[in-house]
Fold each of these.
Amino acid sequence: MKRFFQHLYDARVWIISQFILTAFFIFLAWLAYPETFTVLILVMVLMSGLLLLVPIGYLMRKEKVVQKAFRIFLAEPELENEQYLARFVSKSNSKLIQQLGETLREKEDRLTQQNLEVSDYETYIEEWVHEIKKPLSLLTLILDNRSDEMSALVRQRTTHARNEIQNDVEKILYFSRLRTVHRDYLFERVALRAVFEEAIAENASLIAESDLTISIEGNDISVTSDRRSLLFILAQLIHNSAKYAGKGAHLSVRIEEKEAIIVTFHDNGPGISARDLPFIFDKGFTGGRAKATGMGLYLAQRIATDLNIQLVAETEEGLRMSLVIPK
């Protein structure tokens, strides 16, 4: 019924014209045949109604066919579907349909080409990650078995370089996981202090290289989360302070329980400008720092969102990062 009234509204000019014409003929019939005026009025009104309803019914039926043809054409803008749709429209509109089909097919070909390029790129990255693990494993083997043949400084620098490469590889793996629909999270009870100490141990060479000191306050509270992903987030926050707070900076970590579990990271570095703060978790944002990639905090934020954790940044006598974990 709604479509019927819509068609009436669309044909309002034609309907008004027909009404005026019918009224004019009724007036002529009244002048010429006053004795049969009533019968003539009924006939004229009936014919006007038929002339109104039949075309609208035909247009409604045709509209269904055109809409179906349009949906098929938009879903698959092939030449055959374009020609099928052109049968139901005027010649002037068929030229527009032809231009639309050419544009859609061109964009579809371009999109297919881009998807192939992205697929090739992802395949290359996956192969690169697989290949880079071989020299990393060899480097780890040398550090485990030949570290006594190195000086303390060489061993520290080599371990730091190895860990930096591992961290970059880890970021690539997590970034690729974000593109998948299913992510293999394993939720379990996790002791926050123990996970943080593990993150410190895994990044000991970076901490030593940047001369960063870390202190932990608060009880060892347990939460339900994915241990591996939580460890990655904590490692990225340590990396951020170690790299950008400056040599000899201090990072204080506080674990407290309120309405939620809150883990606060606060370093005494230069912080970040209020202008840049809203963009700190954006992909590729570096804040003008030449050695930054802008991926660590972006990935930390994305993974935190997946784990139902809120990651908040504030600049207050340094940089303050807070993990808000629901109980």
Note: The mean pLDDT is 81.
Amino acid sequence: MITGASSGLGKELARECYYKGARLTLIARNKLALGSLLKELEPSSRKSDYGNFVQIYNTDLSKNDKFEEILKSAESRFGGVELFVCCAGLMETGTFLTSRQEQFREQMENNYMSLVNSLLPIAKEMCQRKKGRICIVSAAQVYMPIEGNSAWLASKAAVHALANSIRPELNRNKVYLSIFAPGAIDTEGWEKVSSKKPKSLLDIEGKPLSVEKACTELLRGISACDLYITTSPIFRFIRICSLGAAERGSSIIDILLSPFAMLICCGVTKYINFKSR
């Protein structure tokens, strides 16, 4: 089950999983884009909302609209959800002093509440079955906040904190959670907001990774049962320096790499401060 499946990472993930033989439940607000994706994956399908291996549901998760009904309907046809990936979200850029209060509320509703509204029912169902995997899409910038993304990063930090806080509870019920915290990804959403960003911010973020490569890294991390998945070695070092705020993959490796991680993070911080002047 993939939310935010009508575009960007969610759409590419749907393609990859379909060609690997998965049965898919795809959820998004854009009904037209979902229908187009269904026709792409199963062109012989005569139904507008499901094929042999794909079913689509159009809903706004930020409004807590129909998700429990969707979950019951999806499982009645394809069985219990084995993997849930929450890609649903919205990115809006802008400096704090030029932002409106509504922007912060919209970002929290679309990035945080859409996760809560979908994750809570499905986590309960997985815990009852004592089986399942969950992957929550956060952002690597949570560990290195950059000027110009304040509303979006605040919502992603909430997503990140929620994921870390519920992991022990889920693990006790044999439900395992990964956090995918990528850098910039070359999606339609990134292209839309990048035109509004100052050049200094784009320089800090670096060249965006192709959505295909990001998807490959995400699936690799899920298959390896990684607790924290990212797309850049720099962000892996930044996680090590989080002083326990991030889940440890291997404490021994993290301890050995800590001196190098501290040096790298100091350099990254100085670079960000220089570019932000």
Note: The chain has a mean pLDDT of 84.
